[in-house]
Amino acid sequence: MAGSFTGTDNYIATRELQTAVNAAVALQRPLLIKGEPGTGKTLLAFEVARALNRPLFTWHVKSTTTAQQGLYEYDAVSRLRDSQLGDARVNEVANYIKKGKIWEAFDTDEPSVLLIDEIDKADIEFPNDLLQELDRMEFYCYELKETIRARHRPIIIITSNNEKELPDAFLRRCFFHFIRFPDKETMQQIVDVHYPGLEENLLANALKTFFGIREIKNLKKRPSTSELIDWLKLLLAGKVSADDLNDLSKLNEIPPYLGALLKNESDYDLYKALREKGIK
């Protein structure tokens, strides 16, 4: 496929993820990405834009975000204030229209990438409110009495952390991909991107500890890829060697800088108790 996405030197994309991105582009459908936090969902849009040399527009959704904000916002209050002050700007409604990220992505002279990040944070009706706009690539601006149409269909990447179920009508219009947590081999490739030339035994022992923690049952939050990268940075800064990690493991002591991996006291206490019992 011409101009297809194969990952970048900064982003290791599995074959399944590459296929998903390119399939969504071919179908001209939004790509809905799910996966546990820290698996690179948001970063994917940045790397797709970089790999395909396209401008990127990012819309980070919050609990208070409305679909209308992605299109545009009309500042009627400012216009009223300016009219009271006799400002000539009030004669042009466009002066009080703030373009949203969808409008900006529609308005580019070249194809772009649009990231709608963490769509499940918003109200349950939020995805349905965008159905027509993302499907038809147009919307109507009532204040300007004008239909805004996309000059070029953007690549749309939508992320979700599964905090809410998304409506079926919305799902039907998306190509879906779940980013599974990297296996040990893929994780080694990811680490190599961030720390090329990392001592082999240190990486092996660190990964053994990391994946051992992830396998513990009843953890409230399992450590993610980004937290592993942070932990390795601290190990290097603290000059912790492979032998140090190995010795701590033999002594059933907790590894240094554990706060980079475990983020609440119950998980910390659970791991500490297991180590004291000799469970690796």
Q: Give the helix level as a range of percent.
A: 40-55%
Largest sheet report: 5 strands, parallel
- Summed over residues and divided by their number, the pLDDT gives a mean of 92
Structural class: alpha/beta
Tally the helices: 13
Query: What is the general shape?
Result: elongated
Order of adjacent strands in the largest pleated sheet: 2-5-8-1-9
Rg estimate, integer Å: 24 Å
Provide the succession of SSEs. HEHEHEHEHEHHEEEHEHHHHH
Report on the structure:
The chain is built from 13 helices and 9 strands. The protein is of the alpha/beta class and 280 residues long. Strand 6 and strand 7 form a beta hairpin. The longest helix is centred in the C-terminal third of the chain and has 15 residues. The chain is elongated.
Which short descriptors sum up this protein?
9 strands; two-stranded antiparallel ribbon; alpha/beta; five-stranded parallel β-sheet; single chain; elongated; 42% helix; 280 residues
